[in-house]
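Repro case for the chain-ordering regression, as requested:
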Amino acid sequence: MTLVEPSRARTAPPPPKAVSPGRQVWQMFRRNHSAMAGLFILLAIILISLVGPSLYTVNPREMVWMPLTPPGQSEYVLGTDYLGRDLLAGLINGGRVTITIGVFAAVLTVLIGVTVGAMAGFFGGRVDNLLMRVTEFFQVLPNLLFAMVVVMLFGPTLVNISVAIGIVSWTSTARLTRAEFLRIREMDYVKAERSIGAGNARLIWKVILPNAAPPLIVVAALSIGSAILFEAGLSFLGLSDPNAMSWGRMIGDNRPYILDSSWGVTFPGLAIFLTVLAISLVGDGLNDAINPKLRQRQ
Amino acid sequence: MIKGTLGKTANTVILLIAVLVLNFAMIHVAPGDPVEALVGEMGGATTEQIAELRAQFGLDQPLYVQIGKYLWNVAQGDLGYSYYYDQPVTSLILDRIGPTLLLVTTALFSAIVIGTVLGVFSAQRRNSLLSHLVTVLSLAGFSAPVFWIGIMLILLLSVAIPILPISGMTSSEVPEGTFWYILDVAHHLVLPALTLGLIYLAFYSRLSRASMIEVLQTDYVRTARAKGLPRRMVIYKHALRNAVLPVVTFAGLQFGQVISGAVLVETVFAWPGLGTLAFDSILRRDTTTLLGILFFSALMVVVMNILTDIVYRRIDPRIKTA
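-- result from build under test --
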């Protein structure tokens, strides 16, 4: 279509510079101070967890000093716990486990949720009915208790803990995905793709899902935070991998001694709090950065 | 309305049976069985004794017979027998439900009332100090582990400023059934309820704030303002009634999840409810009790969902059929 009336062509504004969606979101995100603060905290925590253990080489499982030494009274700056283990070493090493479980559980949550929601929203009818019943079933299951049962019966390994968290957390992602699919399914560009012979798989994964992605990315980011809290809760109840040090486990281990050493519980709790707070800030920032585009599109 | 409720009830029964089947399946898929656990606790047994125990538990029968028996027992209110506590699980649960309900009702009710008030006020002045405070409070409430908040409150209000008891529900020296006993329980209730309440408060203040902001932008609120109604009237009569709907929905949903929500807080404060029972049964590897609590909680969830549905229809007459 190159036939444009000369008069209209002259008055038309110059075409806006093409900016990729990712860049647009980043530009919005960058202006959000709290989200940027969250991002920096998060990156710092990840960096410390990655390289910290090789820089600060105290073994977090070994007795290094008098048990229950308060912070600042020995070379171990954050003090020691009831077994005389260095708290700082525990914090630095525990981050890996906590964040790994959080990410792994969140990936599972999103994977199950998006698959179920996409199938339900795309196929509709009986498939939708059945899958929504299943979703409802998992909503009725009391999530912490169910995860407790799974971990207790199958053993507290890192994989089992992550799977248990994933299994109880996916329902809201599924509902959101379904709603997005129901909306996008009826769009003209989807119909156009179908009319040129695109199969179901292509429509679901290549056409609809990318368009449904923005709110799902936000949910995925936030679910890392809730998975970390969940893991902390389970390990507080004693359901943690005996071979792995995590922040939640440190709190659980030190709880009986809070009257003698408040620091043993305070520091790991602060670490969890900061991490989840940073993730929430990033998630909220992403949401704000993505939402104006959603409004524009409708 | 009755028809809708009936349909929901049928749906509910199916859901509950599904929970039981899942319980049953998990025990059988998981490594080890109840007899092995029991033998472990007894400190070993002969092969004949083990075979006898298996027969006693019905474990030598085909799976479909076992599951049939299990469902039939639960239908009669029998959730199995806890060998650790030497009591039927049903009576264990009924003994412990009172403290849990007291704790959760107090926490949830105060959180809803305070949260709604905070939310409604902060929604009217979106850039005021209060509004920012609500945002910060809810962000913090969402990000801190609830059991850690509990421990921090103990350190603050029982250790640094010793005004509240650290744990438990009663002091042993106060006789039961007196006025002082009620005060004593209330005194012990403050910290756990505060801990659990803060989490709920974070949620409800945020929810009601968002809901109120949305409602204040609707056409009917604009109309009410345009025809010159006083501000109070607009806020409390026109806006609040609609803004409170999502609060009711979530209150129902969350009240159903009470036991799950209370596990961590009860464990921190040694509050003698179902949550501590669940924690103890993990320590003792008492699967029967834990599964019984799981089923009972699922039952609470569905019952609360049905009740919420009924309340919802009362508040919002537009919802006639589901």
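Ordering looks correct now. Chain B is about 75% helix and 0% strand.
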